[in-house]
Design a protein that fits this description.
Four copies of one chain form a homotetramer. The first copy, chain A, is α+β, with helices and mostly antiparallel strands. Chain A has a single domain, classed as Hotdog Thioesterase (Thiol Ester Dehydrase, Chain A, Roll). Chain A is about 20% helix and about 40% strand. Chain A is built from two helices and six strands; from the N terminus they run E-H-E-E-E-E-E-H. In chain A, strands 1, 2, 3, 4, 5 and 6 form a six-stranded antiparallel β-sheet that branches. Chain A starts with a strand and ends with a helix. Chains in contact: A-B, A-C, A-D, B-C, B-D, C-D. Chains A and B meet through helix 1 and strand 2 of A and helix 1 and strand 2 of B.
Chain lengths: ~130, ~130, ~130, ~130
């Protein structure tokens, strides 16, 4: 799934580019959009993130329009891996890429749990 | 170097814990403190981040006091690697850990450059 | 001008609603969109904010789609006032409202300056 | 009460100064510190913010150490007003000032409620 990201002036730091931490937020935005729009789930997120990796390729400057591609690449018993590519919308130049690992989580019992079968199929489709 | 991190209410998300993206900011805070306080450099940062990794071990809840340990583990020609551990200040329980890669950068020419010799020594001391 | 705002999961705090500080950012997003899209200016902002007021009417919850209306209500010699209304996109219920004052600013000399005549006309049109 | 604020590199925007929205967060930090440290309350916040005003007097630049003074100026039946001054720690120069209004709130019933008598006394002492 590919989504457009609305960057904010406050995402940019005195270096004149998007601050490095924002990319983890952009990943989260793409993940949330995939969850709600591609998977048809409600905007609640019964998982925790156990790992995040970002590799920064080019600076994103004020006015650069950004897209994020998000793809499920691995669904295990309790966790799944999502890969992301942040692209300049105008020419698809790669700005950054990375991944996150999500672990299915029951907030009531505060424990990791198995991914329900119906969710497993939806995850694989992103 | 080990520094205390002042968390903010707005760092916490509806999951009741520090949002995953904030850890990259906590790494940046520790990196900045090391740069200014341990290395004696001015609060300007002539480098870009080329990679960030975070592994999340435990949730940080409201009121949990956090420290970050930051250590230089590798200094190359143009880049250096910093490792971080986020700890509960009360009992040193590990909350998260990870690393970032910094690349020496000349913002005027927008190019990566060699790490100056005097900076190299200071980096190794963190 | 009325714009849609892409909220982020990290905008929400443990109260389960958008954190109060984010509304000032939403105002900034609407201001920037008006500047670029309605006024045709480049994404650089030669002004500083001298005042911001937000009145919070209803909580915005996860999944609530938000719009911001922004209107110029007063253009003086060096400053102008923008008013904002944050609305639920589905039923136009008022979530928050407020204003900001902008002062034309020359970053090179670090001084406030008069609003150029051509900009004055564009501001009045928002 | 006067507290030191740990600013973050990501608080600064391409203008080279603290972004305007961050001051509302700095107010929140001072409010939270007063709540926990001066009033002895747990780090949970049974109120909502109904109004925030910031007046920006001087830019805060990288390396400027900031303090926030917070004072209760009005305690009503269900709400109270806090005033804030953001100061340069080195010379007490005024950077920004403003206020917020808090409304006592029962998150379980989602309704505003009266301020308990014991809290009323603690609020007046800040």
């Amino acid at each position: 799934m590919r989504v457009s990201i609305e960057t904010r002036y406050s995402d940019y730091d005195p270096g004149g580019h998007v601050n490095n931490a924002c990319y983890v937020t952009y990943f989260e935005m793409a993940r949330g959009r995939a969850w709600v729009e591609a998977m048809g789930m409600p905007p609640e997120f019964p998982f925790v993130v156990s790992e995040a990796l970002v590799r920064y390729v080019r600076q994103a400057r004020l006015g650069d329009p950004l897209d994020v591609e998000v793809t499920t690449t691995d669904v295990r018993e309790k966790s799944w891996l999502l890969r992301y590519r942040v692209l300049d919308r105008r020419d698809d130049r790669l700005i950054a890429y990375g991944h996150t690992v999500q672990v299915m989580f029951d907030y009531a019992t505060q424990q990791s749990v198995e991914i329900p079968a119906e969710l497993r199929a939806k995850l694989a489709a992103v």
